[in-house]
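Subject: Protein record for review, amino acid sequence with backbone structure tokens
Concerning: The relation between a protein's sequence and the shape of its backbone.
How to read it: Take the token row as a discrete description of the fold.
Enclosed: The protein record, placed directly beneath this head.
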Amino acid sequence: MRSSTQRFRRPLLCAALTVFAVAATPFVRTALDASRGPGRLAVARLQYEGGGDWYANPSSIPNLLTAIAERTALPVERTEFKVKLTDSALFDYPFLHVTGHGEIKFSDAEIVRLREYLTRGGFLHVDDNYGLDESFRREIKRVFPDRPLTEVPTTHPIYHLVYDFPKGPPKVHEHDGKPAQGFGIFIGNRLAVYYTYSADLGNGWEDVGTYPDPPAVHEQALRMGINLFTYAATSRVTP
């Protein structure tokens, strides 16, 4: 039997899905790209420079997409896309996922492009795979020098939209004994950047057996990922 959360009894999510067909496209498009139609409901993995393994956790996004498709009413595409910040298709994707263990580095042009993507309604999820933290914090400060990363309060809808996470993001792997934390950057009232630190959600999304984690941990990671995507797909753009 499915739980009440899987039946979408939460008022906030029901309201979001009711208006989804007319209001969920998360981008304010310009005349330059209006001819390309509405953004697709898809997840794109961001390919970046600097030497970090942006391609880590190969089974993670396919598993997350399957879970989204099977457990929500969102018409998500089941294909994982890969995109660079300079690609013309960037604005087709409402959800960008970044992971890796090493250095991440953006060019000046990519900084401008990412800022535009986020201010026009895009959602960026960065999952530190243990080693990305220092370089990501440096680069995101270049994107928004006046908008610091702050811990997202546990009352935020991203922790309750489909599944409840009253203590914040789930802990998948232990790194230096630190708790899992979720940091964010807000544009208006909208959470535009969500950064999971010391959580390893991507590892949790991978095939069961890839790591010595119990299936319950895999399930918690998937549930948090569903919350993230649902928020990205249904949150309103605010100036």
In short: The domain at 5-19+52-234 is CATH 3.40.50.12140 (Rossmann fold). The mean pLDDT is 85. The longest helix spans residues 215-234. Residues 28 and 34 are 9 Å apart (CA to CA).
